[in-house]
Amino acid sequence: MAIITLNNNSLSSVTALPAAISLDSGLASQQVFTSSGTWTKPSGITKVKVIVIGGGGGGYTNTNTRGGGGAGGGTAIEIIDVSSVSSVSVTVGAGGGDGNSGGKGGTGGTSSFGSYCSATGGGGGVAYGTGGAFYPGDGGVGSGGDINLNGQGANGEYGGTGGCSFMGGGGRPSNDDGTYHWAGAGYQGGGGGGQASNSGGGAADGGAGIVIVEEYK
Q: Are the beta carbons of 187 and 207 closer than 8 angstroms?
């Protein structure tokens, strides 16, 4: 290692950078999966930070029954040594469909990064006044990560807002006359909002999951 001295406010005796310092180290690139596929390691990458989020649950939106919002998808975050890995299968969970029949919205799909970590989807919203098997859905659950997070549970009240995920908010409930309600936010797994009236409205599907792979040298 070179010795750097300061003489009269000027640097001298600089011969070389320490061997431990590399100008090429650190975050090099990123791959974002909004649908299932395969992660292929770029040249020179040794580690990845993976963020896996499950799909959001669908809100209940039957035209004759008030309903609640769906739950948010879970999240798993993991740093993985990929020095000896060339590719990994990626699964991205779909958002749960809105519950136009059967008493409950659809459950969001599970997202995963190979066998390293995964996150389940949020449960669906329920029709107002139902019980038994139709309790509001739980938030999704992350597993296998260095950090594992649950999505926000479904709102069982009629006209309930969808549950949040790690990266996205849930869908809004319908306007007062029930003419429209909103799906979960973007690709970020928030649950779909339920309707607030006995009249019809738009789809309240849960937001789809996502897998983000940050790549480091």
A: yes
